[in-house]
Amino acid sequence: MFSQNKPLKGAAVLVTATLLAGCGSLLGDGENDEAIVVGTTSTPSVLDPAGAWDGSWELYRNIYQTLLHFPSSSGTPEPDAAQRCGFTDTVSSVYRCVLKKGLTFSNGNALDAEAVKYSIERTLEIKSPTGPAQLLQSIDRIETSGERTIIFHLKRPDATFPLVLATPAASIVDPAAYPADRLLESDKISGSGPYLLDGYKEDERAELVRNQKYKGSAEVKNNAVTVRYFKDSAKMVEQLKNGGVDLTYRGLTPEQIDDFGKNRSDHPEIKLNEVYGTEIRYLVFNPRHESVAEPAVRRAIAQIIDRKALVRNVYKRTAAPLYSMVPGGITGHTSAFYEKYGEPSVEKARSTLNQAGINGKVKLTLWYTTDRYGATTAEEFAEIKRQLEASGLFEVTLEGREWRDFQEGVTEGEYPVFGRGWFPDFPDADNYISPFVGEENALGTPYEHKTLTGTLLPKSRKESDRGAAIESFTQAQKILAEDVRLLPLWQGKLYIAAHDDIAGVEWSIDSSTIMRLWELDRKKSW
């Protein structure tokens, strides 16, 4: 289902594997004080939105506010803190927003145009190596007019800019509480989102309560949510089965998903929901390391990797082979790597290496994070090692690190080859290419290419009709397949396992696959 040629209008269309059951069930009205408990393996790295471009966004979306947001089943941004927004010129280079009246932060301070300006300029100024400053790089300057109007002047035309403003990269923070030149070290958060962070224990839990001062687009259907963070998927599922967790989001292993699907009678109160996902997993090569500096080595690996075997043997078909950095369901998707390399072939890989003068076994070290994407990551890399070594062309060493240490190694350019997962910032092909290329990118591996970064991507951003940018994205994907600096592996689905008294699951995922906790509620009757 992931190699569709027609783009989906909503990248987060929900396909329920098991429909939420019940006879005449009624949704609650948010008056139930019992907190809904959500389990996940996606642990925040920092609480300051200027410092993280990772799974921390799951929390940010619920405690911070942005000018725009992605509504249910739509990739077109709509106002949140803003009353209205739009380009004021014909070439998508000046963008103007007017704030809603009477916005305040949770501490009572006014959320005005200066606060928005401060928040975004602060992220750009701090430029944290693990932060989202790169997403905001198209901004040349920001000006305000009165207390409610913000005007963004862009360095160049960028039709994707409204999409960026709908991401947590543009989270609005209180200037009085967040220092301008460094990240906030306290867990005393002052946001204006649907929830207040009432308590936080790093790597363990976040206690959220409804923000009574919130004035935005979300209709909050519960009074409190506790997010529990797990390093071990097995412990998370055990808590789900024992009633310590009401719902799990991110981190279920293929075996656990299969178990919920096949053995429903063991836990009939738990329903498994399959969500159309645009998550991708890929390998990154850093040519600054001698072992992968030669393009022939990278191309040989691309020629050997058997994606079908990978998703069959490791992911039990809960994922699909991916032959492009742009996944199926996103406008502009192609199968560039399949067109370039076809089916796996050891002979073609050997020929590629021999033509480059490489005749002996190539020694490689592959790095991965042990606690970010679920327990199956280790099995995935073991399968990649097996495939490469079975060819007789490679000798592979595997190294795993916990996320924070792994991230540090990435930013310092320590790894020759490493694995990464990507959940989209926004549902556009640009977001699966631009963050990973250019002199400064999210991977710490500079990737300059005259045609790719100098012509194709700038050209695509001029198109307000994103369908008109397909030609540029098609050419960009061909370049990525030729260079093999990035090697796509698979495209995943999201699975949410929830107790059957939890309502709103089908509306809880936005088009960037971030969970909107405010949509969850307990069913009041059956």
TrEMBL record:
Gene3D superfamilies: Dipeptide-binding Protein, Domain 3, Periplasmic binding protein-like II. Residues 1-28 form the signal peptide. This is ABC transporter substrate-binding protein. The keyword Plastid does not apply. Residues 77-441 form the Solute-binding protein family domain. Its main location: other. It is found in: Cell envelope. It comes from Streptomyces chitinivorans. Keywords: Signal, Transport. The keyword Lipid biosynthesis does not apply. The lineage of its organism: Bacteria, Bacillati, Actinomycetota, Actinomycetes, Kitasatosporales. Belongs to the bacterial solute-binding protein 5 family. Pfam families: SBP_bac_5.
